[in-house]
Write a structure and sequence with these properties.
single chain; 108 residues; mainly beta; five-stranded mixed barrel; 1 helix; 6 strands; 57% strand; globular
Length: 108
């Protein structure tokens, strides 16, 4: 089974992009607090790369901004690509299949 459930804070505003065949997607980074504090009493966070496609991407881009808390469910995926110099790069990220609010939206 490949299932991920995360609650974290968006590190920057998600932006919709398009593939060459006009499919919408957005990449975003979630700062997810670790369970325990370090020796200085500070809570550490892991910054986890995520991608959402189609309607999920549009929903995230429309309703969430840098600093908002968001809950996502999805799966881990890996991919690779070659850069301009032919060097292979490997990426592990969370494919966000669902997103939800974890705090009320302000009415400012």
């Amino acid at each position: 089974m490949n299932k991920v459930v995360l609650v974290g804070t968006l590190a920057k505003d998600p932006e919709i992009r398009l593939t060459s065949n006009q499919t919408q997607f957005c990449n975003f980074t979630l700062a997810v607090d670790r369970r325990f504090k370090d020796s200085n009493g500070q809570r550490q966070a892991d910054f986890i790369g995520c991608v959402a496609w189609k309607q999920t991407a549009v929903f995230i881009q429309k309703y969430f901004h840098k600093g908002n808390r968001i809950g996502i469910t999805g799966s881990i995926q890996t991919r690779s690509y070659k850069d301009d110099e032919g060097k292979e790069h490997y990426i592990t990220e969370v494919l966000a299949e669902e997103a939800e609010f974890v705090e009320s939206q302000s009415t400012d």
